[in-house]
From TrEMBL:
Protein name: 3-hydroxyacyl-CoA dehydrogenase
Top-rank taxon: Bacteria
Keywords linked to the UniProt accession: Fatty acid metabolism, Isomerase, Lipid degradation, Lipid metabolism, Lyase, Multifunctional enzyme, NAD, Oxidoreductase, Peroxisome
Main location: other
Residues of the full protein shown: 155 to 866 of 866
Subcellular location: Peroxisome
Keyword Disulfide bond: no
Binding partners and assembly: Monomer.
Family to which this protein belongs: Belongs to the enoyl-CoA hydratase/isomerase family. In the N-terminal section; belongs to the enoyl-CoA hydratase/isomerase family.
């Protein structure tokens, strides 16, 4: 990455030299221009802060300077505090961000932040200390600290409400959303949109300077934060808590914004800083920081040197829910895509569903009408494979049966242009077996999306035994184009994610046998941060489906593998889940209720098996549910299914809704202790069969007393 390159360039230079090159200072007539140029994203590293401090001093003391413009070199303005320096000695180098802001707020001449790319976190907070903010049309601004389990610790919770009001500030800071320049202008986050930088900003600064004295700094403007009804915060806490699902930072952010309204600025700023430090020291922030780097690391495949091919057109086979969703993913990214199926009716049904999905997005306000129309226009339909021939990639999302897929791939092999990528969205079948149907196995790869494909962020790429480096590089890069988070899996049963899932749902049923209730299990899973409990999830996907999948797999499993009979027993009793109005729960519409009949069936099963039932603490349930995930994840690292532990975290956060503020299952496993996971796996193997036992890697790490996957 560029960071690494940059730090290589740092070597052998003094800190002063690095700071000098990190921030340049130029003049355009009577306007001083400060250019922050520190790869990759101009973060507020020690070098940048030092450079800014001396540039501000120079501009302040220069009588010929009438106004000051601050801008970013390279692809962006300042993307925030330097996350890689947080907690290190470098973060203590003076001036700190607060001191820089003070210099700007006391600046005797007009200051203008000139934004392109992104002004995020501490970067936007620096801009908030300027008298004015201008941006080019493509720029985005925001305070995304909440995504790292933090709050804006340099006055963001104090200054933003003064510009945009309480409601908008709560929304922007608790969501961490990036705001487009035009929206930011409407809200008051910026003062003008300019055509070019730094020219547009210099002209703006000159105009403002001609008007006389600089205006009041943002921190001294109070009209939007006085006389706020305390009920506003009660309501905001209720709303935000419901969405936060256990995350701390969003509620602390509201505390800080409330403080802005009730205390003098100095006191409220000190409160914000103290709260920032508490959050920084929290487990949640450590987990989210881990996750931030995990997502970026997952894109990199060691040893892969091939350059990705350009993907300018695509085709999707299968116009069902999944295929339609995948077509939308390409269209949303601006890539023209063919949608195809066996009959005109199937294709028509597919495109009608897509149209409906876009209509819903527009009605909900999550997509502008023009964007939806643009995307829809990029989707063409056909039933003739010959039409797909020129596509750079084709993704098959047909029925999950090997003979069907092999037939499709044999036909694709005949028509597709040389070098086109032939991808399967399979979640269970072997990529190698699918590739066997073609004469170009090097071009065959798994590209697995999660339902609904246009919403879920995970793209799990699966490398077959003969998949070429070129193909792997291309589908990894494609993830970024499509706005997905990618991981690379080696071909195996269930790949990274689904291979683990069966242990989570399986253990939930064993817990039922032993005395836990569906309601308790689901409540614990949701309190942990999962979007839905495992029992409710089963009810939604259909208990009969679960039974069928198990029966199909049984032959390939060790003879000592045990399945709880509860699922099959419920299905026999006509309880197939939501679609029949009863499963683990009883349903009235979408509302679910505990069902005494289900409880009786579970008790019967336990009695027949001679299992003694007991009470479970929430803590024990939590550990029992998630420990088996970690155990199977360790086996994936061991056998090369996953490149690294953190990739598994990325897969589970994006594909299964595992809470990012717990860092992902593998990070969570390190927190609870790998030795405990190991002991639990030994127990589980006794109860459920040898497949549940620990692998060699976990055993070795435990025996050597190692606490983390990096020690592997
Ligand atoms: N500090 C240090 N490195 C950072 C960084 C940051 N704030 N933000 C990004 N990087 C690094 C990434 O790790 C990556 O490094 P790599 O190439 O070695 O993997 C490189 O910059 C490029 O990042 P992306 O791959 O994410 O590039 P994109 O172009 O997709 O996205 C971005 C750019 C929108 C800036 C995105 O990186 C991002 O959202 N960064 C985080 C921004 C953020 O959270 N800022 C707030 C920090 S906390 C703060 O400011 C506290 C303050 O309130 C006191």
């Amino acid at each position: 990455g560029e960071t690494r390159l940059y730090h290589a360039l740092d070597a052998g230079r003094t800190f002063a030299e690095i700071a000098m090159s990190a921030v340049r200072y130029e003049m355009d007539g009577d306007v001083g221009i400060v250019i922050v140029d520190y790869q990759p994203v101009n973060a507020l590293s020690a070098a940048v802060r030092t450079g800014l401090g001396s540039a501000f001093t120079k501009a302040r003391d220069d009588k010929n300077v009438k106004a000051l413009v601050i801008t970013g070199g390279g692809r962006t303005f300042i993307a925030g505090a330097d996350i890689t320096e947080m907690g290190t000695e470098k973060s203590k180098v003076k001036p700190d961000l607060h001191e820089l802001q003070k210099m700007l707020e006391e600046f005797p001449k007009v200051t203008v932040a000139a934004i392109h790319g992104t002004a995020l976190g501490g970067g936007y907070e620096l801009a908030l200390a300027c008298h004015y903010r201008v941006a080019v049309k493509s720029a985005k601004v925001g305070l995304p600290e909440v995504s790292l389990g933090l709050l804006p610790g340099a006055g963001g919770t104090q200054r933003l409400p003064r510009l945009v009001g309480i409601d908008a500030a709560i929304d922007i800071i608790t969501s961490g959303r990036h705001i487009s320049a035009s929206k930011a202008l409407d809200l008051g986050m910026i003062d003008a949109v300019v055509d070019d930088l730094p020219g547009g900003a210099v002209a703006f600064a000159r105009d403002m300077a001609a008007g006389g004295q600089p205006p009041l700094p943002v921190i001294a403007r109070n009209d939007k934060i006085v006389s706020i009804d305390p009920a506003v915060f009660v309501e905001a806490r209720r709303k935000v808590a419901a969405k936060a699902r256990g995350k701390n930072a969003p509620l602390v952010i509201i505390d800080c914004i409330e403080k802005a309204c009730n205390a003098p600025a100095e006191e409220a700023l000190a409160f914000e800083l103290a709260e920032f430090r508490k959050l920084y020291a929290s487990d949640q922030s450590a987990a989210l920081m881990h996750y931030f780097f995990a997502e970026r690391e997952a894109r990199r495949v060691p040893g892969l040197s091939a350059e990705p091919n350009d993907i300018a057109s695509a085709a999707v086979i299968g116009a069902g829910t999944m295929g339609g969703g995948i077509a939308m993913v390409f269209a949303n990214a601006g890539i023209p895509v063919y949608l195809t199926d066996v009959s005109n009716e199937a294709v028509e049904r597919g495109i009608a569903l897509i149209r409906k999905n876009y209509e819903t997005s527009v009605a909900r306000g999550s997509m502008p009408r023009a964007a939806a129309d643009r995307a829809l226009a990029l989707i063409s339909t056909t039933t003739d494979y010959a039409d797909l021939a020129d596509a750079d990639i084709v993704i098959e999302a047909a029925f999950e049966r090997l003979d069907i897929k092999q037939d499709i791939f044999a036909r694709l092999d005949k028509v597709m242009k040389p070098g086109a990528i032939l991808a399967s969205n399979t979640s269970t079948l072997s990529i190698d077996a699918i590739a066997d149907a073609t004469k170009r196995p090097e071009d065959v790869v798994g590209v697995h999306f999660f339902s609904p494909a246009n919403v879920m962020k995970l793209q799990e790429n699966i490398r077959g035994a003969r998949t070429s480096d070129q193909t792997v590089a291309t589908v990894m890069a494609l993830g970024k184009t499509l706005g997905k988070n990618v991981v690379l899996a080696r071909n195996c049963d269930g790949f990274i994610g689904n291979r683990m899932l069966q242990y989570y749902t399986g253990e939930a049923e064993f817990l039922l046998e032993q005395g836990a209730t569906p309601e308790q299990i689901d409540r614990v899973a949701m309190a942990f941060g999962m979007p839905m409990g495992p029992m409710a999830m089963r009810d939604m996907s259909g208990l009969d489906v679960g039974v069928l999948v198990r029966e199909a797999r049984r032959a390939s499993l060790p003879p000592d593998e045990r399945f709880s009979p509860i699922l099959a027993r419920l299905v026999d009793g006509g309880r197939l889940g939501m679609k029949t109005g009863k499963g683990f729960y009883r349903y009235e519409g979408r509302d679910k209720f505990p069902d005494p009949e289900t409880a009786a069936i579970i008790e019967d099963v336990a009695r027949e098996l001679g299992i003694e039932r007991r009470e479970f603490s929430d803590e024990e349930i939590e550990f029992r549910l998630f420990a088996p995930l970690v155990n199977e994840g360790a086996k994936e690292i061991e056998d090369g299914t996953a490149l690294r532990a953190s990739d598994i975290d990325v897969a589970w956060v994006n594909g299964y809704g595992f809470p990012a503020h717990k860092g992902g299952p593998m990070f969570w496993g390190e927190q609870v202790g790998l030795d405990r996971i190991y002991a639990a796996a030994l127990e589980a193997a006794k109860r459920n069969g040898s497949r549940w036992g620990p692998g060699k890697l976990l055993e070795r790490l435990t025996n050597e007393g190692k606490g983390g996957w990096r020690d592997a």
